[in-house]
Amino acid sequence: xxxxxxxxxxRLMGDDGFGPRVVELLSQRPLPxxxxxxxxxxxxLTIATDLADYDAVIFLDSIxxxxxxxxxxxxxxxxxxxxxxxxxxxxxLHEVGLEGLLRFAKALGVLPSIVYIIGCKPRGVEPxxxxxxxxxxxAHRAVEMVLxxxxxxxxxxx
Length: 158
Hints:
Strand order of the largest sheet: 2-1-3-5-4
CATH class: Alpha Beta
CATH superfamily: HybD-like
Number of domains: 1
């Protein structure tokens, strides 16, 4: 099983850099050879076709969640077919967000069958480098969540 762990976000926009920060922390850990970690930044829909190379993907992103800044939520995602390729193909990731990327990849037939999102409630998303204290702490907790998902996915193969 090939697994992609993808950090979504812009490091120059404060807590929007959550996803790339988790990828940075994960890259310092020993990972199985079938796991790839990538900072996809704000790559837009151009990354969609890359997803065809994986059996599972775990996205990390700043998401407007209920709760205090630094709140984490893990979601297993199912994307329904909606035939929105023409509309989505004209937009950037900034306009469509992660959901748009997932719908676009599904419409192209390249979305892995297993998709997780680990979202983090940001304190602030404005120009600036570095995460708030709450989101930095959440990034470290998210590393453990990712490692647990990877363990579970690999165990399901046994």
